[in-house]
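On clarity, I found the account of how folds are encoded harder to follow than it need be. For illustration, here is how one protein appears when written out as sequence plus structure tokens.
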Amino acid sequence: MLVYKCKGARYARTVPVASPPARLSQRERRAQILRAAAAAFARGGFAGTSMEDVASEAGITRLIVYRHFASKEELYRAVLERVAGRLRDEFHEGREAAREGYGFAVGSILAVAREDPAGFRLLTGHAVREPRFVSYHDAWWAAAVDAARALLGDTVAAVPGREWAARTLVAFLVDAVDAWLEAGDPAADALFVDRATAGAVAMVVAWSRAAGDGRAGPAAPSAL
């Protein structure tokens, strides 16, 4: 309470005092730093970003960042590991939960990209240009192509194009999500998932036709 006095009179006025912000748990603080680091690294690159930049992005001190990560390199690796893990987990969970599997592939990628747009772009794009971190991109890419290969099954003939089809399918889905982050309305995410999935299925149907004779090959996978 603040008390004011004027010419012998006494007036009192209660002034609300803002409560201090809630203290983040160690897990919450780590997640906050990772998101801030992804944004800073995506903007300035690894070489052009300092731990001070990350701290500023997170709204904390550099000392707090160092309490969780011993170096900038460790922090960059942690960002990539987190996104790769989330993409893997979301893919498997989405496949199990989705009705007949339709749309789960696009939906799982979009969920992670919405959660951490900068981290998603670091893993799928920026890391390939960073020699000391390219292995994280390559491991994610190989796992994604393996998953696409399994989804395609025998839909596309081994010769000449099953491996090409698996790689092209992954590239299409990732690029579609990245473009949607830039140009799409989050309120229309469900519509995007439906349309992008329809586009992917249409490509697979086209690829499944026997070479040159126009005959339909095996049916496109229903789980996609």
Q: What stands out?
A: Residues 83-208 form one domain. The radius of gyration is 25 Å.
